[in-house]
Amino acid sequence: MSTTPFPSQVFTSLKELLGMERVSQFFSLIARKQKVKSILGGRHESKLRGRGLDFEEVRHYVKGDDIRNIDWKVTARTKETHTRVFSEEKEKPALIVVDQSKSMFFGSQKRTKSVVAAELAAVAAFRVLKQGDRVGGVVFADNGIDIIQPKRDRRNILRFLEKVVSRNHELADSKPANIEDALKEVAMKTRNIVTHDYLVVVISDFIRYSPEVTRFISQIAQHNDVVLVKVFDPLERDIPKTKFVAGNQETQIAVDGKSKKIRETFQSGYDMDYQAFQAQMKKHRIPLFSINTVQPIEEQLKEVFKGGRK
Q1: Do 179 and 288 sit in the same domain of this protein?
Q2: What's the start-to-end Cα distance of the chain, in Å?
Q3: Pair 176, 77 in one domain
Q4: Are the C-beta atoms of 306 and 295 separated by less than 8 Å?
Q5: pLDDT band, residue 307 (cuts 50/70/90)
Q6: Would you state the pLDDT for residue 55?
Q7: What are phi and psi of 253, to 5 degrees?
């Protein structure tokens, strides 16, 4: 690990990620708790006969129905036996896929994208556990992939977050790898875990996803609920109104931010890419929302999921 000093909030820690549990109260990943206009509105719930949580309908009694669900008022009024049917959820295990590759090691003001992605992964993991479902994760970086199988166990979340922190700190010295190959491997490993009726949350900046990986996401969404969270830094869209030099370890370029044309071209390019990706995901009914590196996560999640809190 590099001994070069970095500003605060460039990396995360296990203590900080465990502290994100408090943020998980601000939204729910259970579909039927979401209003129609919320980010998760429209997801299907299963209809099972039994003593579920939500009343569904009254219908004629069928031999084998639970007699405890007989609606005696309707039965008395119609002179025919009727029973109440409830809506009951099947298990919804979750897999959280979080990007800790080199493109995430960037932040212009508050935190890096990799830190925000790690925090979002922690929030989602705690939320799923609170809902009583199994949760696991996939952490992918330029030099490796970590798999944590879904379990209904707080210690499993701890193992997942430890992997996230480890990959996060490796970003100081890691070299950008062939991300396409890494993403293909992630897709393959994810497919081995996810069968059907899963919730798959993918947290990334989505700037290097190939059509093949996009197809994989859409295929997963055919039998599972998929939610995409794009982490971005404001500087990726809005360059400052000044002349500056931008670059990485290999290349540097001079940018004239005073030019209105350059700023507008920069903004429109970002917006077009995002809107095209969003439109593509919408065809497959995959919700996509973005979280920036500047505002507090809890404020942004409240806005995204407003109306969806229990």
Answers
A1: yes
A2: 43
A3: no
A4: no
A5: low
A6: 64
A7: -135, 150
Per-residue b or e along 166-178, where b marks 16 or more CB atoms closer than 10 Å to that residue's CB: bbbbbbeebeeee
- List the single range of 44-48, 221-225, 290-294 with lowest mean pLDDT: 44-48
Q: Which of 114, 118, 124 is nearest to 93 (CA)?
A: 124
In a domain, 8, yes or no: no
Q: Is residue 239 part of a domain?
A: no
Class of residue 202 by CB neighbours under 10 A (exposed 0-12, middle 13-18, buried 19+): buried
74 and 188 share a domain? no
Number of domains comprising the chain: 2
For the entire predicted model, the pTM comes to 0.78
List the CATH number of the domain containing 140: 3.40.50
Q: Report which DSSP code applies to 102.
A: G
Alpha carbons 212 and 89: distance in angstroms, whole number: 32
**pLDDT(113) > 90:** yes
For the segment 190-219, what is each residue's pLDDT rounded down to a tens digit? 888 888 889 999 999 988 767 777 888 888
Give the domain range for residue 215: 14-41+91-233+283-304
Chain position carrying tokens 């609920």: 225
Please state, in angstroms and as integers, the Cα–Cα distance from residue 212 to each residue in 99, 179, 184, following that order: 17, 13, 8
Among candidate residues 213, 119, 223, the one with its CA nearest the CA of residue 168: 119
Neighbouring-strand partners of residue 146: 139
* Token code pair at residue 5: 């000093």
**pLDDT value for 154:** 93
